Amino acid sequence: MDQRPEIPGKTILRVMVVACLVGIIVVVDLALLPQVEGAFIYYLAIVLATNWFGGWGILLVPISLGLYHWNVAVTLPPGVRYPYLEDLTSLISFSLIAALTLQARERYHRVLAAEREQERLREAAEARGTRLEALYRVASAANVSRDPEEFLSLILDEVRRLIPHTAAATVLERVDSHLVRRAASGPLPSVAIGEKIPLGHGIAGRVAAYGEPVILEGAAFQQAFIESPYLRALHPGAAAGVPLQIKGEETGSIVLFGDRDAHFSADDIRVLQSIASEAALVLREMHLLASLTRTNEELQERQRILDEQLDLARDVQKAIISVCPEQCTLGPFQTAAYHASALQVGGDLLRIIPQEEGAALFVGDVMGKGVPAALLMTMMTAELSSPTVSADRLEVILRDANHALAHNIASLDASGFVTVFYAFLSKEGPCVRYASAGHPPGLLVHADGSMEALAAQSLPLGVFADTEYEARERRLAPGDRLLLYTDGLIEARDGSGGFYGCERLERLLAEARQASALDLRDRIVADVNAFMKGNPPADDIAFLVVAVQEEAPQSSEPASS
User: Fold this and answer.
1) d(CA 163, CA 185)
2) Is the pLDDT reported for residue 474 higher than 60?
3) Which one of 106, 156, 245, 395 has the largest count of C-beta atoms within 10 Å of its C-beta?
């Protein structure tokens, strides 16, 4: 990968910054250890070290762990046993932060390299285009050309006008061990175009083989030197030829055949060489242009096929998402859902599964965007959509889904994880039982405006195959509103790059807590769109709104909005 060399002074400065930061962290850790979990404040130093120094930055992980161990040890009261489990937890956390930072750093450098390569190709294409335009301006005949053969024919017509007594002129291009006649000017039949001459044979073959100009006239010129029967039939009295060269490589030749009064001079050779250099360059450029045109057409066709496949994938994903109705009523619960992808296909999960005793519902977010995220989204939606889900099986469902995801990632030699908030709404109570795999907590708004976060944090799916998940339960009351969402909602950005944020979302929920599930959903969508001011979403957005009604309706059938 193309990377700029590190400046020694900058490296020393970075080492000093990391060292000072570690020292500050040690002091702060000693001061704050009784109040907070001190291991987390080491993350900044590890992130900076791995980002600045790559793999060498990992050396800070054991250093940080040792300092953290020492900080904890010196603050323990006499007789208290050291909690070695915290060292293991900190080591895993520090290593995970270093690994994620290294992965992000590597992807960032890959993006930069791709952008530089794209810029280089663009500049090269622009340079070729500029040179091609200059050659067209120099050669007036090129202004009306349509293909290499037409251009060369017009050039040869100009040569015949510039050099007197020229009966015929021809251009031959080297193809492997032969010369192929690409164009001719003079009384030659059309079948002469495409004629092949072995390299080294005839006047044209010798000029191309030896790379030297030649003038043959008088006693030095013999009809036997002419390889083509079409040219011998003209009974020329002289011949002159120059090679077509590009960077010292012979790519063909231009040969003139004069009438009985022809007398080719050194000036004629210089004119012919000037024309030959232009002809060689333009011929190559036109071949490149034709190749680029064909490549562009192939790429456009591939893009069309890819767009069709993406459209099909989008339709399939819409069909998967549509299983979750936009609005439905399930006993005392009224729900409304929203889903929007940043690209043609997305990686957010969204599902409501009606049950006799209530309803299971989940929202989730796959790491990344586009087709890879959409494939994981499809797989995980199927894994999590158990038809026999119940309130007491949430931990098992998340555990099984984690096993499946970890197994598939390992078999595909891929990386990725999925965050999920899984909940079960029980009609009896009513109450909600929920579990989370690294997902933002659900927000529960009470009728009096108070709000609480339903947090039950565990690692995301796909990080470790043996992760266990914990479920919690919360009773609900009439008038409560529950919001489950993905981080694309709070990370929506305005034109200046500012985030929508949790505070604005919580303020809106408090103000609209008496609205129905559908009205609350629409107000959230309208507020987010107003905040983004027409900018496209940077990430997929999905959320579910649940309203606990005052009286449970008799019907439990979904109703489209």
Assistant:
1) 13
2) yes
3) 156
